Amino acid sequence: MAKSITLKNLPDALHARLAAAAKRNRRSLNNEAIVCLETGLGTANPSVEVQLTRIRALRESLGPHSFDPDQIDEFKRLDRL
């Protein structure tokens, strides 16, 4: 079910930008606001399983790497110079 919101204290300049974008895109002010919100908020977060699958695939694509603690400390020192 669709929900409604009311925006209070919308700055005039922001309203003007939204209205101009709505006109340019041949949308109502409401539909333009929805598109802006969808774009700004992005898509829903993937599930934990999907994220883990992506992380594992990335890790496998990088190949084996082995650093000893002294190398890691040296890398940290170099970055801080």
Radius of gyration: 24 Å
Percent of residues in β-strands? under 5%
- Number of helices, counting only DSSP H or I runs of 4 residues or more: 4
Largest sheet: none
Give the termini distance in whole angstroms. Answer: 56 Å
Number of domains: 1
Organism: Synechococcus lacustris str. Tous
Domain Antitoxin FitA-like ribbon-helix-helix: 4-39
Protein name: Plasmid stability protein
InterPro entries: Arc_rbn_hlx_hlx (IPR013321), FitA-like_RHH (IPR053853), Ribbon_hlx_hlx (IPR010985)
Task: Describe the protein's architecture and organization.
The model has no long low-confidence stretch (mean pLDDT 89). This protein is mostly helical and 81 residues long. The termini are far apart. The protein contains four helices and no strands. Residues 4-39 form the Antitoxin FitA-like ribbon-helix-helix domain. This is Plasmid stability protein.
Q: What key attributes describe this structure?
A:
4 helices, mainly alpha, FitA-like_RHH, Plasmid stability protein, 81 residues
Write the layout of secondary structure elements.
Layout (H helix, E strand, L loop, with lengths): L11 H13 L4 H13 L6 H15 L6 H11 L2
Helix pairs in contact: 1-2
